[in-house]
Amino acid sequence: MRQFKDVSSFQQFMRERVLPALPAAVHRGVQDGADRIKVETQAQIGHYLDGPESGLPTTPLADSTIDDRIRKGFTPDDPGLRTGDMRDSYGTRVSEPSLRVHASIGSDDIKAVVFEMGRLEQANYQPPRPELAVAAHQNEDRVAQGVGKVVVRVLKGRPLPNAVADEAE
User: Where is this region: Disordered (predicted)?
Assistant: First the structure.
């Protein structure tokens, strides 16, 4: 534990070492968390999800969808996974380092949006498959802990780790 000889040395430490490093620490924790959610979302595509989250368990593929997949040369029962293009379209965007950092995780592919939210048109119904929402919900605590770990490192006067936040120390 770091010891200070007086209040002014503590204030100097906070001013010179901690405050300048906090924005990068928050950014690092949020970036690591966003990457974790993206990777988890991508890993779930092609699998049925089960759990307590809203929209689960996911609905089995319709027989007509299975037949279409087979006819086109794809595996019969891997929801959302055909060529892998939709899965690979997921990405993250994280705002600049500051004490308040925002992250967006998702896809610009309209198929991913329809896959996540579903389609209610009667002639072209598709049930929602909330891959991104489930990955975010399941990783919420890990992301918060990861941000906390890098912030604590900075408060201790230690540099940011080279590894992602939750793997370091």
Answer: 69-93
